[in-house]
Structure formats: structure tokens, C-alpha cells
Amino acid sequence: MTGKEIAEIMNGLFRVHRQIGDLKYRVRLLERSVEAREKEFREAELNLSERLDSKRRALLVVDENERAAATAASELERRREQLNSAKSDREYEALKIQIELEEKKNDSLADQTLEALSALDEISAEIASAEERVRTADSNLNKARATREQESNKLKIEIERALARLKESELKIPRDFVGFYRRCVDNYGGEGALAPLCDGGYCGSCNCQLPPDEVARVCDGAAICCSSCGRLLFAPEQFAPN
Ligand SMILES: [Zn+2]
């Protein structure tokens, strides 16, 4: 077999490996896209559940305030009734002071209730936007899953076809390449197993400069692995002599 013929076989093999690598990469991208959308959805749900907890706590505060305000209001009422039936000036004055204090307490509780209600309003608005975020995340996740479903089926078919082409190409590998090739595929995976020679006599995998006689032998069709990275070297078709 001539160097040119060997170069053709090895280049064909390299292209199929690259194609398979690219197809598998696209499958992984689809998976990653779904994973990212799943993470987004979980975060949106967690955010919503935290907001709902805040609302429950805020409602308790409003409830407590309203009860305290009701107690304070009835206490004020009681003092006012006592004032009407005060038996002495001293008692009257003491009750007036008491009433002033109760009124202040009532005002402060009313302020606190207003604050708690406004906090509750804010939380309700946050909940509405958190719910919207969950809906968007859910829809994005469903879209990503649908795309994965649709695309990965096509990719699987393409991968099967490429694997069939790989099998055909592997049958053409010259006998003295087979051992090196198998070992490199086992060690570095399909796409990483082969290294094309680059301009200037560099290894296309590790970029190491190769000895000129080694470059010449690879171009002539010898089975040689890069002494630096161990990949099986091959000459691009234009490098190989006829
Ligand atoms: Zn190398």
C-alpha cells in the first residue's frame, strides 16, 4: 500500500472519529441544557417556597398585632368608663394619665399593624413575581426536554450511521497499524487516538516537533506513535507522496 493510500484511509478514519465526537458532544450539550433548566426550575421553586414562608410569618405578625390592638382598645375603653365614674379628683387625674398612656400604646400598635400590612403587601408582590419565575422556568424546562427528545433521536441515528462508517473504515486499516490504533483508541478514546502531522513537522495532538526522519516515514506510510503524547501519527493527504 502506498503512503498516499494509507494517508487516505487514516484521514477517513480521523474524520469519522471527529464526526462521532462532534455528534456525542451535541448530545452532551442537549443534556447540559436540560440540566441547567432543571437547576433554574429548582431554584425558582425554592425561591417561591421561601417567599410563601415569609408570607406565613408576616400573617402571624399581623394577627398578633391585631389581637394586641384589640386588647389595648378595650383597655382604653375601660379606662374611659372609669374616668366617667371617678370618685375623686385624684382618681380622675390618675386615670387621665393612664388614658394618655393607653392612647399612645394604641397609636403605636396601629402604626405597627400598618407596617406589618405594608410588609405583607410587599411579600405578596414578591410571591406574584416568584410564581411567574416558576412558570417561566417550568416552560423553559419543558422546551429544553422537548428539544432534547427531538434532537437526541436524530443524533442517535446519525451516531449509529457514523459508527457503521467507522467499522467500514477500520476494516481498511493496514495490518501494521492495527495494534497501535487499538491501543491508542483504548487509551485516548476515538477522537483522541489519532494525530495528524502539521506543517513544519509538528504533532497535531501535542504540538511537539517530530524528528524529520520520523515525519518522512509517517508520510511514506509507516505506523509510528508520537514519542511525546503516544498518539498514532498520520499524514494529511496532501503530505503523502503518490
Ligand atoms: Zn504528540
- Tell me the fraction of residues in β-strands, as a range: under 5%
What fold name stands as the CATH topology of the largest domain?
Helix Hairpins
Mean pLDDT value: 95
Shape annotation: rod-shaped
Strand order in the sheet with the most strands: 2-1-3
N-to-C CA distance: 10 Å
Low-confidence stretches: none
CATH architecture of the largest domain: Orthogonal Bundle
Number of strands: 3
Helix fraction by DSSP (H/I, runs of at least 4):
over 70%
What is the CA-based Rg, rounded? 40 Å
Name the assembly state. Answer: single chain
Q: Any idea of the CATH class of the largest domain?
A: Mainly Alpha
User: Which molecules other than protein and nucleic acid are bound?
Assistant: zinc ion
Overall domain count:
2
Description:
- It is a single chain.
- This protein has helices at residues 3-84, 89-171, 175-192, 212-220; strands at residues 194-198, 202-203, 232-234.
- Helix content is 79%, strand content 4%.
- The radius of gyration is 40 Å and the shape is rod-shaped.
- It is mainly alpha-helical.
- It contains four helices and three strands, in the order αααββαβ.
- The longest helix is centred in the middle third of the chain and has 83 residues, at 89-171.
- Helix 1 (3-84) packs antiparallel against helix 2.
